Amino acid sequence: MNSLDNLRAVMRRDRVFDFMLQTTGLEVDLSHGTILYLEDISVSFDGFRAINDLNLYIDAGELRCIIGPNGAGKTTMMDIITGKTRPDKGSAHFGQNINLLQLSEPEIAQAGIGRKFQKPTVFEYHTVFENLELSMAGERRIWPTLTAQLDGAQRQHIDEVLEIIALQAHRDRNAGALSHGQKQWLEIGMLLMQNPKLLLVDEPVAGMTHQEMERTAELLTALAGDHTVVVVEHDMDFIRSIARKVTVLHQGSVLAEGSMDEVQNDPRVVEVYLGGNCSLGGHQTPSLAPQRHRGHRG
Amino acid sequence: MGLLKLLQQDRGGQVFLGLLALAAVLVPLLNQLLPESHALHLSTYTVTLLGKYLAFALLAIAVDLAWGYLGILSLGHGAFFALGGYAMGMYLMRQIGERGVYGDPVLPDFMVFLNWDALPWFWYGFDMFWFAALMVMLAPGLLAFVFGWLAFRSRVTGVYLSIMTQALTYALMLAFFRNEMGFGGNNGLTDFKELLGFDLQADSTRIGLFVVTALMLALGYIVCRAIVQSRLGRVAVAVRDAEDRTRFVGYRVEHVKLAIFTFSAVLAGIAGALYVPQVGIINPGEFSPLNSIEIVIWVAVGGRGTLYGAAAGALMVNYGKTYLTGALPEVWLFALGALFVLVTILLPRGLIGLMKRRGATS
Q1: Residues of B with Cβ-Cβ distance to A106 under 8 angstroms
Q2: Which of A90, A295, B177, B251 shows a CA-CA span of 20 to 30 A to B196?
Q3: How far apart are CA A135 and CA A12, in angstroms?
Q4: Which residues on A lie below 8 Å from B230 (Cβ)?
Q5: Cα(B333)–Cα(B260) distance, rounded to whole angstroms?
Q6: Size of interface A-B (CB pairs under 8 A)
């Protein structure tokens, strides 16, 4: 019966076969103003449901903050968007036309989704300059990469990004020799070089001083508009300084969504945070040290 | 012009290529011009021995390209080396012609001995040098491509990949030991007469082989250096240090690995083809896992991730091997093991790393 249905689908003359549709190398279509659609996504690891019927929509040009207690599924969600983890069910689309579940990690990166890891990950044995060079948007195939030479405009672009992330002085140092905060910025700079439409930024201010944090907040807010930025962070002061819209994840699905004040006063959110080991630090409570939260799957 | 630019930053490479050029000129001169009684006279035996070391140095560079820059610890590069050697050996066998013990114009001796009446299909074409030269590169290249494609696509990495490469060379060794395979069984291929019309026993041919090996080593070094200096080389190091990051930056890690691993295998095959006419034999023992591990030790001793360090390590360890297996044969394997342990503990960057550190502190 099933094969007969498949055959009938092939007989129809008003549609293109699925396998003929182009899946890679598409330009993202943002005509409806939404850049990311996550619908009914579930994924479990060894019986533990990390993501549970998650529905999330991100508008193009938005700066969205995602918070939630440990184990809420924040990092897993990013893994799904970037192709590292495949969901058990549900759908994930980038713009109107790109089905993320059909693409590999490099294809997703080339389609325009950039990611900063929770733990800053840079190429330690390359100089800061080379880190940015390797991340530069453009050709990724083997032979062109072998023969690639930087031209003047590209060098200039790299120098501009170096200035934005304030690492001009460290241009020719190995990235491994940078401080934690500088590595975080270098990784943000690498994201900028990729020129993605959507930036997924996982804990950008962990290990940063207050001044560095302020600069990062400025940078991320400046990026929103041209780019879409999704920030996962634990530091509530930081969230408050940049947030326009906040999504609270809990046990793998969306618990609440709205402005920081709305979310903070939502009784369900308060209960989740008070019940867990995190506090939704208000103005009077200083934010928790971010170090406490590192090394888990958020 | 491009070459000068390539070597400008590469002090070690300049020294290495300079010494190699010196050896390529001096060794033939010391052999030919000085009388045998002279203290500095090099016997033809020594010239061939040095030629063999240079072939090993090329092999070490191939391993260093994969291990030092791409992070793939191959414990099976001996297989690619041996395949290149077999391709050359098959050509040399077909050149024997009627001069074999059984005098068959087409069939090599071992086939006559096994009562075969026709040449197996995979021996066709090996009477032509260009075809054999192509196979020297194609056979190891194809094997590495297929193996790499399967392994890298399934994201097998680290020690698991090393074990698989080890299994690969072991499986090939067992296969080549079988007479039915048609590669001479455990005797391998030997009793070669001439190469491109030159008598392999003649001094001039041996000197010629030494010079050609030196040239190929220099060429191999320069090509590897060019790859390492290119953006692809930087991507390779990025894959070595942070594979996931490289993927999320948009590079297809599998393709990068496959390209460089395959090139490394081709280089190993060429080294094997240069080795066989100089030693005069190729047998399945070359596939033995121990050989592949020895190559890794050469690279570790010299210092990985520098290319010239690998070559230097190959020359030094092999000189030590020749000396020790002559003077105290039973000690060699223990010495090799001890060397590996000592280098791993005391000199993680090898002798080149030690020299660089000395240079930095003084």
Answers
A1: 247-248, 250-253
A2: B177
A3: 45
A4: 145-148
A5: 31
A6: 75
User: What pLDDT, on the 0 to 100 scale, is given for residue B333?
Assistant: 86
Chain B CB contacts of A141 under 8 Å are 255
Closest CA to A248 of A70, A65, A90: A65
Residues 255-284 of A with CB under 8 A from B: none
pLDDT above 90 (res A129):
yes
More confident residue, A257 or A9: A257
pLDDT of B308-318, one tens digit each? 999 999 999 99
Structure tokens at B232: 């692809």
Q: What is the largest CA-CA distance in chain A?
A: 69
Distance CA B249, CA B237 (A): 14
pLDDT at site B103: 81
A3-8, long-range: CB within 8 Å, 24+ apart, which pairs?
A: none
CB of B82 within 8 A of CB of B172?
A: yes
- Beta-strand (E) ranges in B72-210? 189-190, 194-195, 198-199
8 A C-beta contact, residue A188 and residue A204: yes
Determine the pLDDT at residue B57.
96
Host domain of residue B99: 2-361
Collect the ranges in chain B with pLDDT lower than 50: none
β-strands A228-232, A63-67 pairing? parallel
Facing A134 at nearest CB: one of B235, B255, B259: B235
Of B242, B248, B253, the CB nearest to A123: B242
A94-98 contacts: CB < 8 A, separation 24 or more? A94/A28, A94/A35, A94/A36, A94/A198, A95/A28, A95/A29, A95/A30, A95/A34, A95/A35, A96/A29, A96/A30, A96/A31, A96/A32, A97/A26, A97/A28, A97/A29, A98/A23, A98/A26, A98/A28, A98/A29
Identify which has the larger pLDDT, B138 or A11. B138
B5 close contact with A: CB closer than 8 A:
no
Q: Can you tell me the distance from the alpha carbon of B267 to that of B298, in angstroms, rounded to the nearest whole number?
A: 16
Query: What's the pLDDT tens digit per position in A38-48?
Result: 999 999 988 88
| Distances, alpha carbon B211 to alpha carbons A277, B52, B326, in Å | 72, 11, 26
Residue B166 near residue B292, CB atoms below 8 Å: yes
B102: three-class secondary structure by DSSP: coil
The answer to whether the CB atoms of B247 and A194 lie below 8 A apart is no
Question: B152 CA to chain A: closest CA distance, Å?
Answer: 14
């491109």: which residue's tokens?
A: B196
Strand ranges (DSSP E) for B149-297? Answer: 189-190, 194-195, 198-199, 281-282
The number of domains in chain B is 1
